[in-house]
Design brief:
The protein has 18 helices and 14 strands. The protein is α/β, with parallel strands linked by helices. Helix 1 crosses helix 12, helix 1 packs across helix 13 and helix 11 packs across helix 12. The longest helix has 20 residues.
Length: 499
């Protein structure tokens, strides 16, 4: 590979400063990452692959910060279904949809503050959250329970409360995905979604929560790889000067950091090319480039660094725009240092229990005409599992099996999917009471059919919906948790066993 840069020059330092790369490892940062930090890299990103425990993360971030005290250490910790800090156990907090259902902004603020303290104790100072998307399309395959809801005013007030709560702990928020990813039926991890509504709808619906986030002082806003023709008919948000500079900077008056969604997502990398997409994003007005969800090696960082330097030298990207972007990254880093608490970063924060309290309050419990007594003997748990979207991933456990097994030893379980899943579950359950666990049953015909099969044959079936509860309640007992976090499963198991 031809290197176009010199490690000490200002242009190179600025090119590195706008990158937020990931890396592999849990116990020590790789040598190449340490070198790049010394050369100007101002941010790194943590993902599930970097996490074993809170104490381990705290030790890892301490090593990183020994290289640069004002290093931005970012994570995608929405809580609820999207968790990196608790990727192996499930989250201690319910996600946005559960909080929106409770609709107590003080609770949302307190949950976010509690999460912020936990992140800060791990040495993390930048969280790519909250989702400020309005879940206007119930068939949305990637937002769903990550949204506070479908009402723009509700989403706006809870987005603001979340921003205030998390940043009270000295952890910067990043309201996402601007200008909104809620009215899509396509996942931008795979291709470019289109939100084909007029500007008035965008103003009153999709943009309202971002105005609220900015008013609440959100230190960052994350762009979306979505095409909104009413704003820019040619370019998705992340690559649109009209959207990032014209709308967000000039019309909204926003002065904080603009960070992109993952640039390795196919909406960008598969359409424009990875390196070129990153250059176009900064030219459009983005300041920080999220790159580490997929590629996480030194070669990726060097290719992107050299792409920015080459773009400046060719005139495709102005040196002033790159310098401005780098300065905004450094300004956010300075804010995190000024906001940093004096407490020891041991990673250890006692569980306050607020997440379980919130999960309990979010439940909707419907007893059907065939309601039977609470489950007091070991049941059969039939989990009907759809393919996970990339944002959620497939590493994090979900459901009610573990908690029911703890309460009712001898509980058995199975996972089913596709046509005939209901019949297979019936056969596996035998005479045991059935607890059926689903996720967005309204989006999966095979899942709805499976529930019909179970409830017809066994009317006392307990149904636990852990996605968006769009379908009508069914079964002898129906519990809507509005998310699949660990605490949501615990709250549901309490109701199932009446304990």
């Amino acid at each position: 590979m031809t290197t176009l840069t010199h490690a000490g020059d200002t242009l190179t330092r600025n090119a590195l400063a706008v990158l937020q790369p990931g890396f592999d490892g849990t116990t020590a940062a790789p040598d190449w990452l340490r070198r790049r930090i010394d050369e100007g890299l101002a941010s790194v990103s943590l993902f599930g692959r970097n996490v074993h425990s809170a104490e381990q993360v705290a030790a890892l971030t301490a090593q990183l910060r020994a290289e640069r005290d004002d290093l931005l250490i970012a994570i995608d910790e929405e809580s609820g279904d999207v968790t990196r800090l608790e990727v192996r156990t499930g989250s201690s907090y319910p996600g946005n949809h559960a909080l929106g259902a409770v609709d107590d902004t003080a609770l949302t603020r307190d949950v976010a503050a509690d999460l912020g303290r936990r992140l800060a104790a791990c040495g993390i100072n930048f969280n790519w959250a909250p989702s400020a998307d309005v879940n206007a399309n119930p068939d949305n395959p990637v937002i769903g329970v990550r949204s506070f809801g479908a009402d723009p005013l509700l989403v706006a007030r809870h987005t603001a409360a979340y921003v205030e709560g998390l940043q009270s702990a000295g952890v910067a928020t990043s309201a996402k995905h601007f200008p909104g990813h809620g009215d899509t039926a396509i996942d931008s991890h795979h291709t470019v979604p289109v939100i084909d509504v007029d500007r008035d709808v965008l103003n009153s619906r999709d943009l309202a929560p971002f105005r609220a986030a900015i008013a609440a002082g959100s230190r960052a806003v994350m762009s979306a790889h979505v095409l909104a023709p009413a704003l820019d008919p040619d370019n998705p948000g992340t690559l649109s000067r009209r959207i990032l500079t014209g709308l967000l900077r000039e019309e909204f008056g926003y002065e904080g950091l603009i960070v992109t969604d993952g640039m390795d997502m196919q909406a960008i990398a598969g359409t424009y090319g990875f390196e070129r997409g990153c250059v176009l994003a900064v030219a459009a007005g983005a300041d920080a480039i999220c790159t580490g969800g997929g590629p996480s090696d030194e070669g990726t960082v060097l290719r992107l660094r050299d792409a920015f330097v080459a773009a400046v030298r060719s005139g495709e990207l102005s040196e002033e725009r790159l310098a401005d972007a780098a300065d905004r990254v450094r300004a956010l880093a300075a804010w995190t240092v000024a906001s940093r608490g004096a407490g020891e970063r041991s990673g250890v924060v006692p569980d306050s229990g607020i997440g379980l309290v919130a999960a309990r309050r979010a439940l909707t419990v419907t007893r059907g005409e065939t309601y039977a007594a609470p489950v007091t003997e070991a049941p059969y748990v039939a989990t009907f599992s759809p393919l996970p979207n990339i944002a959620v991933g497939d590493e994090t456990p979900w459901g009610v099996t573990d908690e029911l097994e703890r309460r009712l030893p001898g509980t058995e379980s199975g996972t089913f999917s596709g046509d005939g899943a209901g019949g297979k579950a019936l056969a596996a359950a035998g005479e045991r009471r059935i607890v059926a666990v689903v996720r967005d049953a309204h989006r999966h015909a095979w899942m709805s059919d499976a529930l019909t099969t179970l409830v017809t044959a066994r009317p006392d079936t307990v149904v636990v919906e852990m996605g968006v509860p769009q379908s009508a309640p069914t079964g002898g007992l129906h519990i809507a948790t509005r998310g699949a976090a660990r605490v949501c499963g615990t709250a549901a198991a309490e109701v199932i066993t009446a304990q």
